[in-house]
Amino acid sequence: MRRTGGLRLLSAVAAITAVAAAAACGGSSARSDDGPTRRGSAAARTIPSPTPTPDPVAALVRRMSTADKVGQLFIPTVQGTTAATGAAMVAKYHPGGVIYFPNNLRTARQTATLSNGLQRAAAKDGGVPLLIGTDEEQGIVSRLPYITRFPTNKALASTKNPDDDVRTAARVTGEELRAVGINQDFAPVADVNVNPRNPVIGVRSFGADPKEVAHLVGVAVDAYRATGIVATVKHFPGHGDTATDSHTGLPVIKHSMATWERLDAPPFQTAIAHHIDMIMTAHIVVPGLDKSGDPATMSKTVLTGLLRDKLGYDGVVVTDSLSMAGATMKYGAPEAAVRAVQAGADMLLMPPRLDGAYRAVLTAVRSGRIPQSRLDQAVTRILRMKQDRGILRSPYVDASRAADIVGSAEHRAAARKVAAHIRAGR
């Protein structure tokens, strides 16, 4: 896949910024061909209109090829513990991000070196820096084998000072992720776990009280964002009341709209009020919200009608893994990717075959099934988020310092303090 020569991210942003600065102060040095203006004349008294500052993200989107834009929608896995294999994939597809799993992660320094290598591959020929994410919820869902350990969200919510403990866990986790070049966390969980038979959420949730869950989600989002991490709440519209695991089946949740508004919506509303960076979709069917029978990930009624229009969210929407059975049972993986974008998803996580999903989306854009305006909207959101979180400006980390931050004495002391609170609160 040939990269369009006009795509030069860093130089484009710098050039546009320079033009904006020149436009802002250029009036004082401008020279008229009509000769000097007499003092006190009408021309001298006229105040020129300010020149609008160019938007570097909008300019970049205009310069990108359709193929590069489609690449930005994808977050695939990477292979190995060094950048070589992943770099080849990045060079071929130009994805918007990648996701790490334990097979990628050995030590803090190794992970930081891997992250820098992948970022260099993404930036080659002026490309766009990557989101580098992982599922580091702590507790039972933890990917980094060397990270400072904290307990589950349910345990954190059980202490006498849950705000402090949730904030501490998110802060330490965010600082350690950033140290190794991971700039995105697929956390916190915003599901309200009201079904004791739930096989996939359970203790990953802050609890069964929507008000308490909403409050603690807001605390966690603020703490993650303060560390520079792109936080991601999940799983919209709410995966808490199911006895089916969407990894292996397609759950059906029988909540009415009124029940959803009372029970499932509050944590997502709070996350939006706290400027959440990303919201992850759920592969669940909720007939009370959409009678089509489509999973929420592929439902325009849910992603655009509810999340965008009703809740007012204009950030990035990312699917849950498209390798899960709940995503592929009805349409198959390539078509699921197309339908997710049509429904309002901006990023597509872990398609089982990246090449097939990429080509399906690219073909859908070129044929008009996915309008160019929908593609541009998604890419603009992605790039705006990367700009706002500093990823476009500074994607690299100091690998030599990673081990000093991960597992530091201060972080270990914070973890022991939280653990003591949990023991005392039970």
UniProtKB/TrEMBL annotation:
SUPFAM superfamilies: (Trans)glycosidases. Pfam families: Glyco_hydro_3 (PF00933). It comes from the Bacteria. Its EC number is 3.2.1.52. Residues 26-54 are annotated as: Disordered. Gene3D superfamilies: Glycoside hydrolase, family 3, N-terminal domain. InterPro entries: GH (IPR017853), Glyco_hydro_3_AS (IPR019800), Glyco_hydro_3_N (IPR001764), Glyco_hydro_3_N_sf (IPR036962), NagZ_Beta-hexosaminidase (IPR050226). Residues 67-384 form the Glycoside hydrolase family 3 N-terminal domain. It catalyses: Hydrolysis of terminal non-reducing N-acetyl-D-hexosamine residues in N-acetyl-beta-D-hexosaminides. Residues 1-22 form the signal peptide. Keywords: Glycosidase, Hydrolase, Signal. Belongs to the glycosyl hydrolase 3 family. This is beta-N-acetylhexosaminidase. It comes from Actinoallomurus liliacearum. The lineage of its organism: Bacteria, Bacillati, Actinomycetota, Actinomycetes, Streptosporangiales.
